[in-house]
Amino acid sequence: MTKGGTSIPDEEWERFLQDAEAGTPGAPEEPSARARMVARRLREEPGPPGGWRTHEPPRRRRGKGWYVVGFLVVVALFVVASDPGRVTNWFGGDDGGGTTRAAEPERPDAPPATGAAFETPTPDDPFRGSPADAWKDGVAGITLPAARATGWMSEKDVARTLERSRDFLVASNLDPGVLRGERPAAAIALLNPRQKDVQNYLAHAFDTPSRKNDPLKMFSRFAPSKVRLVGDAVRTRGWITFRKGERGAVEVTSDVTYVYPVVRAAEGSDEVARTVVRRETVMSWDDPSKVIIEPGTFSLVSYKADTANGGCDNVSGFFVPEFPSDRRSTGEGPEVDPYERGDSMDQHMASGTEGQCREATRL
Known about the structure:
- This protein is α+β, with helices and mostly antiparallel strands.
- It has two domains: 81 residues, no CATH class; 230 residues, no CATH class.
- It is built from nine helices and eleven strands.
- The strands form three sheets. Strands 3, 4, 5, 6, 7, 8 and 9 form a seven-stranded mixed β-sheet that branches.
- α1 packs antiparallel against α2, α2 packs antiparallel against α3 and α3 crosses α4.
């Protein structure tokens, strides 16, 4: 073994292992019986123990290098024994304390875990006690697939189309001005102006919102006179996919859940409420040679939204979240987990009944 270019004699290394095993005062303390077994094996065998179901190539020679390996094994075992959570984090795990997980590449098999019920959110930690505590901020939580030539577009064109589709989601659901109730001009600019039904919806949704023309079906908005967002972060989790659509179009589908933390508008308010919105939007980026469309815009195929704590039977044009201190459970409506992403959007919304408000199992 060497340290700083100086060789350590085998006798000193042997004495180190003996002292560590015997518990000599001042010697490094070994963490477990497993570590002592490894040390003893290193003294008895010239090489490292063989792995389970591994192929060991022929050895060229036996030298002091194996002592270095042994020393590193002992140190690693000590770290595992003293702080196993740290080792888990080395491999990208979630330690349950808000470590950001990887973006969602596809539909998960089970609902996300949550923190303990007593973990009350605060303005400094607004996602505390929620699965969103481990999600990413804003656009970072929306996974884009690898581009490939599809329909009328080349691979490069598809890559740009995916980015512009994500731009629409940002302009609709993450733009600070839009969240404060402003008109989503950047998002509207990406919609095909020749799609009459959509343009008719937009013409009424913001000035005269109604059940038919509800801006919340496509855009996230809060009334600044009622509530204000906590900080600048909105947590997201979801993905975008694409395929060849009708007449060679590139059809892009997004399925994203957004989590908005808010406090009351009054200065000094610190009670946090969360509104959770899951949206599915299908966009058709049409071939201009086959469909009359403005360049750089897309046609809406469909848009769906499922909201928890946005205001039951609400047609104000703004989300109206209820705060924990005011919340009263009726126990009458069906329950839904707003963080559940293992089912399709249709399945997720099917638990409700027309005209009946559902109750979120967690927010």
